[in-house]
Amino acid sequence: MRVDVVLLPSLIRDEHLVGRNVAVFDVLRATTSMAAALAVGVSEIRIYPDTASAAHGAGPASPQRLLCGEEKCLPPPGFDLGNSPGAFTADYRGRVMHMSTTNGTRAIVACRKATAIYPAALVNARAVARALVHDGRDVTLVCSGTEGAISIEDAVGAGAVFEAIREQLPDVSNASDGPIIAGVLFSTLRHSLREALRSGRSGHNVLNAGLAGDIDFAARLDVLEVVGRIDEPAAETPVVRRLTD
User: Fold this and answer.
1) Is residue 41 part of a domain?
2) 8, 78, 170, 200: which has the fewest C-beta neighbours closer than 10 Å?
3) Which CATH number do you get for residue 39?
């Protein structure tokens, strides 16, 4: 298996996607929220590039619909929930989630040419690594970044998954220096993840929105075993479903 890391969606090339599995990171907060939603039993997560298309796709309010997303960290008008991972409880079991965020869902849409997409975060890093190793394809770890700029939390998340892959598959090879850089960053910060997440631009945005609890949730390493996967990334509306063993 060969692994590469792409630090921004704008740096993606076809060779990062075609014939490969892709893990997408938006640690603060979209991919963490996806893991949290699947963990409480949300049936599926439909991915949209913007809030208008998410609202249109979700349709009118209903007991089945769960419209989630954010603009400037906060829930848009008419949305059921924002993008806080701690907001997902067992009350939402069986609901169909429609999601749009500033960075994470757009990064997923940018990876449409991949064979499969795995939303990934610190909270389920080891579980995602296990799924990627089990599948056996070459892997690209894509960081969503923050409004076009590299984000520390996504690079740390990519490093966490890369290091977990190396533990399970010692002969894994690097397609570039990206995995080494991400792995060193994670190894350096793994015992201070909360502080690292608070230090970056996205962390400041979340703190300024009064959502410090979201950082506390996202900074916990390997607390969830749940893994989501998009099996048809090129679909008009990509759908994340829980991967079953």
Assistant:
1) yes
2) 170
3) 3.90.1560.10
* Exposure class string for 47-78: b at 16+ Cβ within 10 A, else e: bbebbeebbebbeeeeeeebbbbbbebebbee
Q: Is residue 164 part of a domain?
A: yes
The total of structural domains in the chain comes to 1
Q: How far apart are CA 177 and CA 139, in angstroms?
A: 14
Structure tokens at 101: 């965020």
Question: Is 243 within the bounds of a domain?
Answer: no
Residue 82 lies in a domain: yes
pLDDT tens for the chain, 245 residues: list them.
999 999 999 999 999 999 999 999 999 999 999 999 999 999 999 999 999 999 999 999 899 999 999 998 999 999 999 999 999 999 999 999 999 999 999 999 999 999 999 999 999 999 999 999 999 999 999 999 999 999 999 999 999 999 999 999 999 999 899 999 999 999 999 999 999 999 999 999 999 999 999 999 999 999 999 999 999 999 999 999 999 85
